[in-house]
Amino acid sequence: MIRVLLVDDQPLIRSGFRALLDLEDDIEVVAEAADGAEGLALAARHLPDVVLIDIRMPVVDGIEATRRIAADPALAQVHVVILTNYGMDEYVLDALRAGAAGFLVKDIVPDDLVHAVRVAARGDALLAPSITRKLIKRYVAQPPSLLTGTGLDGLTEREREAVALVAQGLSNDQIADRMVISPLTAKTHINRAMTKLHARDRAQLVVLAYESGLVTPRNA
Q: How far is Cα 128 from Cα 168, in angstroms, rounded to an integer?
């Protein structure tokens, strides 16, 4: 059973999402919160698999709440998905840097919402190639910072290749096809890279890949 916490200051949004998710046999909405502070308290109490959280909220906003969840070892298995009214909210990159697994627009169709919750619950990033390209164009199309001390130089060549493909929005199966390896081996490369880079999830790999210059807008 996938346990979900809804955090949004709009009751209509929360009730709509709950109604959709409660129809699924494998998903349970365990709690709702109207602001980030309440969401943090409920996350600690219920330890949900997925938190769907709005960016703009009173008391504690979604980005700060995401940052606190990601920094809490007791909530290491909680995956945060940011909710936005726009396809490219100006705060999306900040949310990913804070530790979000990805983001959804609030007018998402029901089937996509359910799929997104399942994807987030298993630790995959909610970053489709089209969304990744928009993210790059609007936020990351700048000279790389050439980060040091991130462990990027400690990756093997195959791990670096796998991370670069993750940054392009490819799934494990697609990465396996591109690298001519099995999906299991692709997943192993990605998991090892995440461990070395101390990345919480695939979304964090995307941010690191572009900020470090491993991948650039030209070769995305």
A: 8
CB atoms within 10 A of CB 6: 26
Q: What pLDDT is attached to residue 203?
A: 73
Q: Which residues contact 16 (CB under 8 A, 6 or more apart)?
A: none
Residue type, 175: I
Among 98, 50, 104, 110, CA closest to 207: 98
Tens digit of each residue's pLDDT (9 = 90 or more) over 79-122: 998 887 755 556 666 777 788 887 787 778 888 889 889 988 88
Asked if 5 and 54 touch (Cβ cutoff 8 Å), the reply is no
DSSP string, 129-177: HHHHHHHIIIII-S------SSSGGGS-HHHHHHHHHHHTT--HHHHHH
Contact call for residues 162 and 171 (beta carbons, < 8 A): no
Average pLDDT over residues 16-28: 94
Tokens found for residue 122: 């298993």
Number of C-beta neighbours around residue 122 at 10 A: 10
Helix, strand or coil, per DSSP, at residue 106? coil
Is pLDDT at 132 greater than 60 in this prediction?
no
CA nearest to 191, candidates 180, 178, 205: 205
Pairing of strands 102-105, 50-54: unpaired
- Look up the pTM and report it: 0.68
